[in-house]
């Protein structure tokens, strides 16, 4: 089993290594959030052990970027000194699968890792997102509609993936801005421009229109237009 340990406390990291490595686990280590994110994006792991309080980028942000930006479903076990319900709910909202509260037993850590990996093996997230004849492959980050390849820039890709993941609901403008620009949203008209370009790519060459504008609320992908509340303009 290959595990990524993202923990800035080297004593804790070494304690985990001393217990797991003799049992046959293969471990990679990162000591700040940005390095952990890069390793998680570049290498395939069976599970990730992720501290909350990390330099550079906190654990919640790392997990959110893995889940929402890149669609990575590797099980994440969060290590935290915070045991309040609100903190745990924040973690689950970011995509965390389980929690271990510090101080912890490495035996319990191993047991929880085994359970997560076993559960993940049977419930892996689908790598194909689709609505109607529009398809997106999370592994190759490629899109096609009716068999025709679509060329997407990075911002279009982020918007499309999030809309595909949430096609059961209307996604607000502020939520989309958070996905693309995090806590530094640009002028409000910029999102409108990117939605316009995305619509030109996925809808304009085709008869049926999938990307709907819900006036005053946001956007959604839908296989059939609801003319009472949606239009095809920005």
Chart the SSEs and their pairings:
Blueprint: E1 2-6, H1 10-20, E2 26-30, H2 33-42, E3 47-51, H3 59-69, E4 76-80, H4 85-94, E5 98-101, H5 106-122, E6 128-131, E7 134-137, E8 142-145, E9 148-150, H6 154-165, E10 171-172, H7 173-181, H8 188-202, E11 211-214, E12 218-221, E13 230-231
Parallel strand pairs: 1-2, 1-3, 3-4, 4-5
Antiparallel strand pairs: 6-7, 7-8, 8-9, 10-12, 11-12, 11-13
Helix pairs in contact: 2-3, 3-4, 6-8
Number of helices: 8
CATH C-level class of the largest domain is Alpha Beta
Low-confidence stretches: 225-233
Q: What is the distance, rounded to the nearest whole angstrom, between the alpha carbons of the first and last residues? A: 48 Å
Helix content: 40-55%
Main sheet record:
5 strands, parallel
Helix/strand structural class: alpha/beta
CATH-defined architecture of the largest domain: 3-Layer(aba) Sandwich
Radius of gyration: 20 Å
**Spatial order of the strands forming the largest sheet:** 2-1-3-4-5
CATH superfamily of the largest domain: Response regulator
Order of helices and strands: EHEHEHEHEHEEEEHEHHEEE
Mean model confidence by pLDDT: 87
Principal-axes shape call: elongated
Number of strands: 13
The total tally of domains equals: 2
Q: Describe it for me?
A:
The protein has eight helices and 13 strands. It is α/β, with parallel strands linked by helices and 234 residues long. It has two domains: 2-122, Response regulator (Rossmann fold); 128-231, Winged helix-like DNA-binding domain superfamily/Winged helix DNA-binding domain (Arc Repressor Mutant, subunit A, Orthogonal Bundle). The strands form three sheets. A five-stranded parallel β-sheet has the order 2-1-3-4-5, sandwiched between helices. Strand 7 and strand 8 (142-145) form a beta hairpin. The chain is elongated. The protein starts with a strand and ends with a strand. Residues 225-233 have low confidence and may be disordered.
């Amino acid at each position: 089993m290959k595990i990524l340990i993202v923990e800035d406390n080297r004593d804790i990291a070494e304690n985990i290594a001393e217990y797991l490595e003799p049992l046959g686990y293969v471990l990679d280590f990162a000591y700040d959030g940005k390095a952990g994110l890069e390793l998680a994006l570049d290498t395939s792991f069976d599970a990730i052990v992720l501290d909350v309080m990390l330099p550079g980028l906190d654990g919640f942000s790392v997990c959110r970027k893995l889940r929402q930006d890149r669609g990575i479903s590797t099980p994440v076990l969060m290590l935290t000194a915070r045991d309040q319900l609100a903190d745990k709910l924040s973690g689950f909202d970011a995509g965390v699968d389980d929690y271990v509260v510090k101080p912890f037993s490495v035996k319990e850590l191993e047991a929880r890792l085994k359970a997560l990996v076993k559960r993940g093996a049977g419930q892996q997230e689908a790598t194909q997102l689709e609505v109607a004849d529009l398809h997106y492959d999370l592994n190759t980050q490629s899109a096609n509609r009716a068999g025709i390849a679509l060329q997407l820039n990075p911002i279009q890709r982020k918007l499309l993936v999030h809309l595909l993941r949430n096609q059961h609901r209307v996604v607000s403008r502020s939520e989309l801005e958070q996905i693309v620009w995090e806590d530094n949203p640009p002028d409000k008209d910029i999102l409108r421009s990117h939605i316009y370009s995305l619509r030109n790519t996925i809808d304009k060459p085709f008869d049926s229109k999938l990307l709907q504008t819900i006036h005053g609320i946001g956007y959604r992908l839908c296989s059939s237009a609801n003319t009472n509340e949606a239009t095809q303009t920005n």
